Amino acid sequence: MNNSVKTKKSLGQHFLNANWVLSYILNSAEIQPNDMVVEIGPGRGKLTKELSRLAGLVKCIELDQNLLDDLNDKFPDNSNVQVIYGDARSIDISSIVNSVNYKLVANLPYYAAMPIIMRFVELHNPPKSIVVMVQDEVARNLTALPGKLSIPAVILQNFGEISYIKRIPPSAFKPSPKIFSAIIKIALFESPQIDKDNQPMFFNLIKKGFSSKRKKLYNNITKAFDIEKTLFQDMLFASNIDIDSRPESLTFDNWRTLYLSMKNIGY
């Protein structure tokens, strides 16, 4: 392995350099001998090496051509590691995973973490589980409780159960980032709670509801959808939502019930 390969700031590269962190990732991922694992941004292959020892097949997607060449040298054609050049935000993932069950395990670049996560959960063949490293602030936002919920947190709950695993210090990486990271796990449901056909309207409701976090949900929704106020009050009551609630205080079930109520009367 050529450790002289320089990091690229434009790609947000911070290579994992602590073995103890690998243990948290691998234990959370629960890799089995027959599993196929997709890894995004394998970097210098530290996590890749451990994944290859546990999984039947590891498919790595790497955007940095210099690292790609280095990885191909480390994991020859006869290994159970396939290194693929591409950007995980745009590459044809379906052709990589086909119809096989798989898990996503990765140390994601901060700038691309949410687009990559959302892309995978929305696939026709999503992973069984996702274990990834992200910015600690993002991890805490995604795993927040009602009262501090955000748009991404609510939307992701449509696809799976999100867990905060471990906070990781900057010293675990080389070069060290200026902020803390964290490992999260998303255990995906067999099917989304709101089906694909209804997701655009459901997600739009959530986004409109959060359009002004300083205002009450009642004000945001009646303004955005031009709903008669007494009618919406009745919908809130039927959905067991307090009229003074703010969007960040609603549970996923609250949002789902409200959406179905609005859909039933044509909104």
Can I get a quick summary?
The chain is of the alpha/beta class and 267 residues long. It contains 11 helices and 9 strands. Helices cover 37% and strands 18% of the residues.
Write a structural description.
- The chain folds into two domains: 9-188, Rossmann fold (3-Layer(aba) Sandwich), CATH 3.40.50; 199-264, rRNA adenine dimethylase, C-terminal domain (Helicase, Ruva Protein, domain 3, Orthogonal Bundle).
- It is 37% helix and 18% strand.
- The protein contains eleven helices and nine strands.
- The chain has helices spanning 19-29, 46-54, 65-74, 93-97, 113-121, 136-142, 151-156, 199-209, 217-225, 229-238, 252-264, and strands at 15-16, 36-40, 57-62, 81-85, 103-107, 129-135, 160-168, 173-174, 181-188.
- The strands form two sheets. Strands 4-3-2-5-6-9-7 form a seven-stranded mixed beta sheet, with helices on both faces. Strands 1-8 form a two-stranded antiparallel sheet.
